[in-house]
Amino acid sequence: MSDTPRAKLSAKHPRTLDKTRAPVRSSGALSRPTKAVPASMLDASGAKKKPAAKPARPRPVNEAPAPAGARRPAGSGAAPRKPAAGSATPYEKRPTGARPPARGQRERVAGARPARFDDESRPRRFDEDRPRRAPEGGARGDFARPAKRGADDRAPRRFDEDRPRRSAEGAPSGRYARDDRDTQPARQARPTRAPRVEHDADDVKIHHDAAGSLRLSKRMSELGLCSRREADEWIAKGWVRVDGKVVTELGTKILPTQEITVVQAARKEQANRMTILLHKPIGYVSGQAEDGYEPAVVLVTREHHWAEDDAGVRFSPSHLRSLAPAGRLDIDSTGLLVLTQDGRIAKQLIGEDSEIEKEYLVRVAYNEHVENVQAHFPADRLALLRHGLELDDQPLKPAQVDWQNPEQLRFVLKEGKKRQIRRMCELVGLHVTGLKRVRMGRITLGNLPVGEWRYLRAGEGF
Fold this sequence. Notes:
The longest helix is centred in the middle third of the chain and has 10 residues, at 228-237. The protein has helices at 27-30, 202-205, 216-222, 228-237, 264-271, 343-350, 373-376, 379-386, 420-427; strands at 214-215, 240-242, 245-246, 253-254, 260-262, 275-280, 324-325, 334-340, 358-366, 390-391, 394-395, 400-405, 408-413, 430-440, 443-444, 453-455. The chain contains nine helices and 16 strands. It is an alpha+beta fold. One of its GO terms (biological process) is enzyme-directed rRNA pseudouridine synthesis.
């Protein structure tokens, strides 16, 4: 027993592990009962005897050992096999005469090939009787390849008088030649087919010179499908059909009674076009840059986008492509400027037959009067501003002109000639000191700050 003291098993005194001590087995493993062995199965030393080997079955003297897996030959002197368990009678040795004949000794059925026996085998063929095998290893007999001819085995050469003549047309000779070829009449040539005439666009092109015909792009613009520029683009892309037939030729004329349709791709592209409302400041031109002034479109950037815009559209540089002003404002004017990619909106605002109202607030001066101009301006001249003036030898449409305050007039026009309000005021003796556009149709400038812009919302219209 080891002298090492044992520690008490508790949380304060954990058991110390001694690696030199062997593990202690349980008492149950030491006291396991063992099976008793009889004394007759033990040898002199007390060990268990090995079982004696089974004696080999006696074999006849003249019988050679059969190979593994071979069947027992019939008529051998070996003892018969034991019957299977549960069998009533043991196996009996059958006499040799009752055994079925061997495979070679069985009788053949009628019509079968007779069996071959050693005494009836074919006579052996010698080398002179055997057909020679081809040198290349081919088959013998009828399937053998012809042997290569030598210089002496060649067939006699045929001369021109012995060779059958070939026809001049290149027809086959010999048994495939036709003797009556020269007697048959020559085959007639097939008549040429007339060129095919296309009639797809005849119903469109025949109206070029018809009375009342007009250009397809103009007709599309009149119907409000798109602008003329957009119509030419759609025609070139093959997106326009007249009476169900595609038209791709620019300048095609049609009758007003013909039906015009456009494909879905054109509708989808048109729906993706943007319209922008800009509060143009003074010092910017509406269209292309001129006289050193920048165009107003340079203000359409992410930085100048109005923070209160609720259109739900994210700015993209593609929105600047083909962006054009619909209604100009002078360099010295400010207010609402519409920039659009949609030709329909442009035609609606500035078309020849447009009826959209444009409202302006105009600050004026009369002679030396800058304040309280309303008190000094004659009423008959105010009536001329409303109707009766001409510009470029053309009478102007009636306009609404009223005093907004003593120094400011309110103009409502349905047309937009170049510098129209300034020129009208000059004709009646007024000098314009300030001009601001505040409304176009139903779209107002509202609280949009100067120099900022917003998108036209989906529910808005002019």
